[in-house]
Amino acid sequence: MKLYTRTGDSGDTSVKGGRVRKDDSRVEAYGTVDELNSFVGQAAAIAVRDGLSELAAELTEIQQELFDCGSDLAFADPSGRDLKLTDASALRLESWIDVHTAASPEIKRFILPGGSEVSAMLHVCRTVCRRAERRIVTLAAEVPVHPPVSTYMNRLSDYFFAAARFANVKLGIPDTEYIRSADVFRTKSND
């Protein structure tokens, strides 16, 4: 099998159900999800190296779901299709967020991305995820988007934040607070 087809040399590409320009909003959306998936793979590799196998397993599952998101976004017309992502995926992310948040110190101020290498990479994932989400919002303003994809991507950026903090805790590295930050995060006991 050859990796090159030459069919995109003129600036268009195939989606499920047709062809579009390579700068089409749909291609921008699933292309950014694919970019995110590559960074998640890097974060998983670092997590394995650092002995965070449970975190690496979560990230590998997220990579599978990001492929599902990309697949669902690639339909020229998603109506009436068997789409892959379900609401259960976002609910599982919420449970992981809760576990990682409970294991991390209380947060009151903004924190700087970093600490450990894996935490820094998870913050890169968080910011690329936010960009992917913005691309999906743009696409959804033009054409229908499978709703679980939007929900999942919104929840996923929160997951990366919680996982980055959790990784630092597991590796014994404190978060670095943004020194000019006011106390912006409040718990119910502080209200």
Automatic annotation (TrEMBL):
Reactions listed under catalytic activity: 2 cob(II)yrinate a,c diamide + reduced [electron-transfer flavoprotein] + 2 ATP = 2 adenosylcob(III)yrinate a,c-diamide + 2 triphosphate + oxidized [electron-transfer flavoprotein] + 3 H(+); 2 cob(II)alamin + reduced [electron-transfer flavoprotein] + 2 ATP = 2 adenosylcob(III)alamin + 2 triphosphate + oxidized [electron-transfer flavoprotein] + 3 H(+)
Enzyme Commission number: 2.5.1.17
An MF annotation (GO) of this entry: corrinoid adenosyltransferase activity
The keyword Nucleotide-binding is annotated on this UniProt entry: yes
InterPro entries documented for this protein: CblAdoTrfase-like, CblAdoTrfase-like_sf, PduO-typ
Residue segments, region Disordered: 1-21
All copies of domain Cobalamin adenosyltransferase-like, residue ranges: 3-167
Highest rank taxon of the organism: Bacteria
Keywords: ATP-binding, Cobalamin biosynthesis, Nucleotide-binding, Transferase
Record-annotated membrane-spanning stretches: none
Pathway involvement of the protein, from the record: Cofactor biosynthesis; adenosylcobalamin biosynthesis; adenosylcobalamin from cob(II)yrinate a,c-diamide: step 2/7
Listed NCBIfam families: PduO_Nterm
Annotated family: Belongs to the Cob(I)alamin adenosyltransferase family.
Name the record gives this protein: Corrinoid adenosyltransferase
Organism from which the protein derives: Paenibacillus lignilyticus
Lineage: Bacteria, Bacillati, Bacillota, Bacilli, Bacillales
